[in-house]
Amino acid sequence: MKNILYITLVSCIGLTIMISCSEKEESSSSSSSITEDISFDPSSVPDNGTTVAFGQSYQYQVTTDNNYSGTITYSLSNQPDGMTISSTGLIEWTPSKSSEITTHSNIKITITTASGYVLTQTYDLTVTGTCVSGNVLSIWSGDQRTSTDSSKFIGNITAYTDNSSSVKTALQNYGLSGNSINLTHGPIASAAKGNIFFYNKYDNTSHLYLFWMFGVNGSSAANKVHLDVYTANNESSDSVIVSDDSGETNRESQSENSGLYSGTYTGRYKYDDCCSDGGVVGPFSGETYRIFVDLGGKSSLTSSHNTTSAEDLAASGVSGYDLGTGNLDSFTYWSKDSSSFSLGAVDNFTVGYNTTLDCSN
Q1: DSSP character for 293?
Q2: Euclidean distance between the first and final Cα of the chain, in Å?
Q3: Is the bond into 283 cis (omega within 30 degrees of 0)?
Q4: How far apart (Å, rounded) are the C-alpha atoms in residues 323 and 265?
Q5: How far apart are CA 195 and CA 200, in angstroms?
Q6: 340 or 229, greater pLDDT
Q7: Are 202 and 161 in contact (CB under 8 A)?
Q8: What is the distance between the alpha carbons of residues 234 and 285, in angstroms, rounded to a whole number?
Q9: Contact (Cβ atoms closer than 8 angstroms) between residue 46 and residue 85
Q10: 3-state DSSP assignment of residue 13
């Protein structure tokens, strides 16, 4: 504030008389920089060596290094086409064009607080690998058996392959012994997380089997799962079913049309802290099959479901014909190169060949 003196004068016939004076305050403002007690978490900031394989899903969660509780707005600039950041700071992107196999430099993350304080971080992201046109195994969210919504594409996948001189059958690879699995080819399972993956006996293009397993060295707090599986356009009859216990993995129906098989399966699992659990279906061959796995919601097989009421009511957190992962933390899809897709909120997904991948762009 500053004081200003106001003087009132009256002039009459050349005589000037002062009648009053007073001081008033006039406000003044000056700009000052805004600061907040907030910064990027140094342990999680991506560096310039960050890479993602072509066709694989890239995720990065922006975090701060303190307990800042105010509102934060997240934004990106200079990012590749299709890369997004959510309202909670989750960056997601799947490189799907051959032109994206390069280093994307100076991707800028910006966080802005409610008071207008701005914090930025830049980094480089390199896409590795090659684009293969035509048929490649892929994964989509949702039911993509009869048509493909490209916006639901999650990424390319590969199978764990046993091309040794003495290959293992699906049952041998599962390694069931004493009510627990002893997996030879596949990801490491754990008590609270479910793993899903393809296993191939020979060449990664035929004799494929879909595995799901969970509860290795488990606990009673994570022991119940319901899922439904639907297969379509399989050149094999997917007649092999592996399960820890009779009735847990059950074929509900199967049909054949012009040499292509379609089937429906239920998985109703209940296990304790002594054992693991899971199932296998297959083999799958050809290049048109799709497998839809439903992990959440209401089962559509209520009219034909063959397992018992006790199994149907087993899962914790679900009831009747509801599907769910019980107390498992999550399900993850794994490829043999150790890349993975955390299914998280994706309670259903489809795996099969992607015949529309175009490497000309």
Answers
A1: E
A2: 64
A3: yes
A4: 13
A5: 16
A6: 229
A7: yes
A8: 6
A9: no
A10: coil
Question: Which domains, from first to last, does the chain contain?
Answer: 50-128 (2.60.40.10), 134-357 (no CATH)
Q: Which tens digits make up the pLDDT trace of 132-181? A: 777 788 899 999 998 778 778 888 888 999 888 888 888 888 877 665 66
Scan for tokens 């060295």, then name that residue. 217
pLDDT at residue 241 greater than cutoff 70: yes
Rounded to whole angstroms, the Cα distance separating 290 from 310 reads 30
Strand spans (E) along 215-286:
224-234, 240-243, 249-257, 260-270, 277-284
Segment 333-354 shows an average pLDDT of: 84
The whole-number pLDDT of residue 311 equals 54
Rg (CA), the chain: 30
Residue 223 gets the label, from left (phi > 0), alpha (psi -120 to 50) or beta, of alpha
- The per-residue DSSP string of 41-106 comes to -TTT---TTEEEETTS-EEEE--BSS---S-EEEEEESPPTT-EE-TT-EEEE---SGGG-SEEEE
C-alpha–C-alpha distance, residues 23 and 5, integer Å: 5
> What's the CA gap between 52 and 18, in Å, rounded?
82
Q: What's the residue count for the chain? A: 361
**Residue 258 reports pLDDT greater than 90:** yes
**Cβ-based burial of 242 (10 A; exposed 0-12, middle 13-18, buried ≥19):** buried
Task: Select from 151, 176, 147 the least CA-distant residue to 292.
Answer: 147
What average pLDDT score do residues 323-327 get?
79
Closest CA to 232 of 147, 291, 294, 286: 291
Instruction: Report which residue type is found at 81.
Output: D
Q: What is the pLDDT of residues 274-298, one digit of tens each?
A: 667 888 999 999 888 999 999 888 8
Task: State which H helix or E strand residue 134 sits in.
Answer: strand 134-141
Q: 210 with 198: CB under 8 angstroms?
A: yes
Residue carrying structure tokens 């009421």:
309
